[in-house]
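Standup notes
- DV: blocked on the single-chain target, sequence here:
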Amino acid sequence: MTRDLLGRHRAVLPDWLALYYEDPLEITHGEGRHVWDAAGNKYLDFFGGILTTMTAHALPEVTKAVSEQAGRIIHSSTLYLNRPMVELAERIAQVSGIPDARVFFTTSGTEANDTALLLATAHRRSNTVLAMRNSYHGRSFSAVGITGNRGWSPTSLSPLQTLYVHGGVRTCGPYAHLDDRDFIDACVDDLKDLLGHTRAPAALIAEPVQGVGGFTSPPDGLYAAFREVLHERGILWIADEVQTGWGRTGEHFWGWQAHGRSGPPDIVTFAKGIGNGMSIGGVIARAEIMNCLDANSISTFGGTQVTMAAGLANLTYLLEHDLQGNARRVGGLLIERLRAVAAQVPHVREVRGRGLMIGIELTRPGTDTAAHDAVSAVLEEARAGGLLVGKGGGHDTSALRVAPPLSLTVAEAEEGAAILERALRSL
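- DV (later): unblocked, structure below
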């Protein structure tokens, strides 16, 4: 049955639509932190639909909210008043940390970043954008145009002029040998020099933790130091929180808060986990920025009632059950367990991350050369052992991505770590 479905997939869908595994997997249902495939095999899910099933599979509170809302009305567009959309916007504005916040809902992180770029360039009247090397911001034309990861950038054409900044990857690149303070100083000096060679950009867009890039991040405080330079010149800071938001990093509710010394971002984008699998994305910005557009705009599917009901139920559950605290506690145990394993596996260059957002970088033993085949082999071996994980990386890097739902238990963390240990030792 799976082979038949694979043939049908290949016959009607694009060749560039990537599938994991040599024998691709059809997931038919899930519950809690587990999913099942079409053959009835059960897996512990440590990737959550690319960090999207953030809370749990088939969470009763969310499924009930979706079912009840679907029984009333599913959709009406933004041309009509929408109570669930207003209520979720109020909650998000409250927790955003942005003063006088306005919220606009989209259907994806790509569309959220697209909207943020529209707002920033319109507000600043500039089409120049600063982005981080090794970054990923989505698959639309403008989002691809600012993505700093060649593996996810199929064209050099872009409506924007993009300049790439150092700093998103701590352990690779020309400043990797420096200590954290000197690393930040060097990146700030590079930013200042870059700004001396161009007209003032509209904004810097940056992921606090680079997701597709392999869960890499700079030292805490880098973007705070950047913000001081940007603010002097009126340049906006866009924090792409599509993967880091809602408490996944454990220590903070938003990834930008590790860099909050100089104040919050001007714009925050979000998606993925807030809907727990439903298609929700969005933008949070100060009113003066959000309201800067001088033409009409709507969203046909952004903020639709059924997805807003899901987001409200999910955010309420997340806050009431302190899933941020659980990510900090269980994630801390998991990362230490994986580091203990990594110390005995020559292929592992680094285990990094925070909370339940963990990257395991693999290289050829004794070198800094990416080991893409080893990542694929571990992915397959982990699946055979009953565990699903992700992968990522950028310029000459390759990493496993570990990002379970935030309700992960200690026992499940230990179970997953044991499967990963066997998979890593099999290299």
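- Follow-up: The chain has a mean pLDDT of 96.
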